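Sample pair:
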Amino acid sequence: VCVAETGDNFPGGMKCVTTGWGLTRHNAPDTPALLQQAALPLLTNDECRRFWGNKISNLMICAGASGASSCMGDSGGPL
């Protein structure tokens, strides 16, 4: 498992992978039996603030793209 170090740079557009056991649809009755993964581009914090406003701090990393994201049950999972 790679762990970020002080001074590491994670520019917008960098491709990352997230995994989790969370819902695969917002209205799914159950979580999946198999671990799920999604490839996501990182967003700059300025890009992320356009969607989430002042909820985004400089201590956060924002990732996502149309059609791919984490969902309920994935909080705290790896990126």
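The radius of gyration is 14 Å.
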